[in-house]
């Protein structure tokens, strides 16, 4: 388990640096213009809002329902037990870890002007948007809207998991578990980016179909 965790951490770290360097070096003018379309400088209020939304927003709260349920079914950590009380503890544990990581990322990012907000690649080809979802896990933007490695995120994700060992059950308060959770943290960010990228399109299409659906005739029209 320890070897697996070490390999996972090393893989994430290596991929993070390689992807960030490649992305910041090879973004063409069309991509850059699209990503800079919303380049308003982030404020302290924006950072607080990002922390609240990322931690307590409907997307994260809904995901927590399924993750807590899965871990309750697996009875992980075993100290919490396979019952509703254990489910509630697992749900709260996930929120506390995510909130800690988000605070660290927003706080550190403010030091060197790193913007943690996800920017959609709306209007780009599907393949490019999928690549953007993945790359944006490891790359963010500076205050001028230029891509840069997400250094604060590289620090925040593992740090949040390390700090959470202070209140985690002993069975999960190990370095190998920190490594696994760090890898899963970046994987979760990819899933979240995909949701942010494509769900607005799905919602618009669903609304259009609803409006285009034929309406039943009223009594006076029959």
Description:
- With 222 residues, the chain is an all-alpha fold.
- The chain has one domain.
- 68% of the residues lie in helices and 3% in strands.
- It has eight helices and two strands, in the order ααααααββαα.
- The protein has a two-stranded antiparallel ribbon.
- A hairpin with a 5-residue loop joins β1 (139-141) and β2 (147-149).
- The longest helix has 38 residues, at 175-212.
- The protein is globular and about 50 Å long.
- The termini are far apart.
- The model is unreliable at 4-13 and 16-37 (pLDDT under 50).
What distinguishing features does this structure have?
222 residues; mainly alpha; 3% strand; 8 helices; two-stranded antiparallel ribbon
Summarize the structure.
With 222 residues, this protein is mainly α. It has one domain.
Helical segment tally?
Answer: 8
N→C terminal distance: 71 Å
Q: Looking at the structure, what is the overall shape? A: globular
For the largest beta sheet, what order do the strands appear in spatially? 1-2
What Rg do the Cα atoms give? 20 Å
Structural class: mainly alpha
What characterizes the major β-sheet?
Answer: 2 strands, antiparallel
Order of helices and strands: HHHHHHEEHH
The helix fraction, in percent, is 55-70%
| pLDDT averaged residue by residue | 83
Task: Tell me the β content.
Answer: under 5%
- How many strand elements? 2
């Amino acid at each position: 388990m320890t070897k697996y965790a070490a390999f996972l951490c090393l893989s994430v770290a290596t991929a993070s640096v390689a992807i960030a360097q490649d992305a910041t070096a090879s973004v063409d003018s069309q991509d850059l213009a699209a990503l800079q379309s919303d380049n308003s400088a982030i404020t302290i209020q924006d950072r607080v809002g990002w922390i609240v939304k990322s931690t307590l927003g409907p997307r994260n709260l809904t995901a927590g329902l399924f993750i807590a349920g899965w871990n309750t079914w697996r009875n992980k950590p075993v100290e919490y037990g396979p019952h509703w009380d254990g489910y509630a503890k697992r749900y709260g544990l996930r929120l506390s870890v995510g909130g800690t990581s988000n605070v660290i990322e927003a706080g550190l990012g403010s030091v060197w002007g790193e913007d943690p907000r996800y920017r959609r690649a709306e209007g780009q080809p599907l393949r490019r948007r999928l690549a953007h979802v993945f790359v944006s896990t490891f790359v963010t933007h500076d205050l001028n809207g230029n891509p840069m490695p997400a250094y604060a995120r590289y620090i925040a994700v593992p740090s949040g998991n390390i700090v959470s060992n202070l209140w985690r059950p002993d069975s999960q308060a190990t370095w190998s578990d920190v490594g696994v959770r760090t890898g899963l943290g970046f994987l979760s960010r990819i899933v979240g980016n995909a949701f942010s990228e494509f769900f607005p399109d799905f919602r618009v299409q669903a609304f259009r179909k609803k409006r285009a659906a034929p309406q039943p005739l009223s009594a006076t029209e029959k």
